[in-house]
Description:
By secondary structure, the protein is of the alpha/beta class. An eight-stranded parallel beta sheet has the order 11-9-7-6-3-2-1-12.
Amino acid sequence: MGRNADTDGRRLSRRGALSLVAGASLAGASLAAASSLAGLSSCAPSGAGEGAQDGVQEADPVGRAIASLSLEQRVCQLFVVRPEDIVDVGTVVAAGEATREALRRRPVGGICYFGRNLEDPDQVRRMLANVESFSEEAVGLPILRAVDEEGGTVARVASNPAFGVANVGDMRSVGAGGDADAAGAAAETVAAYLADLGFNVDFAPVADVAPAGSVMGRRSFGDDPDLVASMVAAQVRGFAGRGVGCCAKHFPGIGYASGDSEVEPISLDGTVDDLAARELVPFAAAVAAGVPMVMVGHLSCAGVTGTDEPASLSSAVVGDLLRGRLGFSGVAITDSLGMGAVTATRTPAEAAVAALEAGQDLILMPADFESALQGVLDAVSSGRIGEGRIEESLRRVVALKLSLAQPVGASG
């Protein structure tokens, strides 16, 4: 099949629940407010009049947004995939009728784009505007339009001369300058050009503490936990100021882990106290700064979990460490479940089910999306995963989406 036929680049339309959160900031206070709204009941107390019922319903935009979704649609919303995972095209560079039909059939919560999908500014703006429009048509919800744009060696947009934007450079170099304001300015720069293109999520900043020369060496701000923490917090604020959702990664910290999770299982020695003294410091700072999303890595932390399971699939890491110890109430997302650290020991279905059981909200790029989706649907059908567990994550995801609502291509 050739590339998708383009349709008109319709701009984002906001009605109903979205209007209730229009103009919401991405700062921590706003996300907390959205999470609070997500937890409100859509039913008025016994004996309340119709006006009171309407007031409570208006106070629960998340509940209103998801009320009409089928179980299968709700589960689909918990996946972020590559565009090629839902459209039978070698490389997707447009969103046309094939994408519209794909999102009707499989209304995923988000799509992550890579360098091969990004040709020039006009092409990206049309593609992202269309995919947003199709998501609205399918389920009445925005879609997470994500990219990895850290700067330096990981810059899907800035590495392409067609976009005419400067690469802000490796975060190692930024960290070496010791100026947190410079880190914040770099995030603002990246967020501004991403928002202009229509992206609403950037899988950055890297919050890993890493020694020079390691796998994460150039992507990390450095090997000093406090310095990395200050840089990460500044970047969280920088992204928020430009209206782009950011994601601190790779919890609980893979900088000192042995191996490369892209191709093999990796591990990190140490107890919870050991991690708290080094790895967790930047993530705690990110949470305090209001980071809306945290990506959990695939490292094995036997000293924490007592097993060799990846952190991304461990309730001891997602529930006890991230939510419990750090008090994170935003969206938890796995690192790509297509990485060797996961596929070496688990099928796509097994990994997706384990991720939700661990407390993850979003499942990122499984090795086989259809198999992973069916695995979760089967787990819900059998009662292994309760529908309440699905709604818990769905509410967090939709609260995030509504906080990011803005016209596609607007820089805010």
